[in-house]
Amino acid sequence: AGGCAGMCVDLTLFPLDTIKTRLQSQQGFYKAGGFRGIYAGVPSAALGSFPNAAAFFVTYETVKSLLGSSVSPYMAPVTHMVAASLGEIVACLIRVPTEVIKQRTQACPSSNTYRILLGTLREEGFMGLYRGYNSTVLREVRLLIAILLLFECFHLNPDSTMSVTQFLNTKQKCAFKYKMD
């Protein structure tokens, strides 16, 4: 389910990602393709999207269940942080190469995904596919920890009238009431 959801989101938002990539391109938006070829690079995104999301959720749920049975309920938030971090590290092993190829194809729409892949491997070797891996992991892990902690806490305390400010003021209560599923 996580793989399908990830693929739907990635493909739906792909044109916006292309525009963002071209706006950030050193050659400028219009020289990088402008609005032309807005789906350039979609094959790498489509191929990597499902396994990326699936790898994250399988790792996250596995680590959560392995650690969840051996810790006290008060340590449950830490369990989720560790599980999310490991899930993101594994998912980035798939995400980063597909992102490298996708972004290079988006910035050079006159080429195709296969040629960009071969060019990257020829010029930079296999490690060229992992350019930016460490910074991506650091960015994603930090964000994901916050998102999953909020989700898990609201999931356990589904008071829809609670505002974010109220939640932040009660974070200690949430952490101490936390129970593993």
How is this structure best summarized?
The longest helix has 32 residues, at 76-107.
Please characterize this protein's 3D structure:
- The chain is mainly alpha-helical and 181 residues long.
- 72% of the residues lie in helices and 0% in strands.
- The chain is built from eight helices and no strands.
- Helix 3 packs antiparallel against helix 4 and helix 4 packs across helix 6.
- It is elongated, with a radius of gyration of 19 Å.
- The C terminus is likely disordered.
Topology:
Blueprint: H1 2-12, H2 14-24, H3 42-68, H4 76-107, H5 113-124, H6 133-156, H7 164-169, H8 171-177
Helix pairs in contact: 1-3, 3-4, 4-5, 4-6
Notable characteristics:
8 helices; mainly alpha; 181 residues
Helix content, binned percent = over 70%
List unreliable stretches of 5+ residues.
171-181
Which structural class should the secondary elements be placed in? mainly alpha
Order of helices and strands: HHHHHHHH
Main beta sheet: none
Shape: elongated
Radius of gyration: 19 Å
Give me the number of helical elements. Answer: 8
**C-alpha termini separation:** 19 Å
> How many runs of DSSP E, i.e. beta strands?
0
Summarize model confidence as the mean pLDDT. 78
β-strand percent reads under 5%
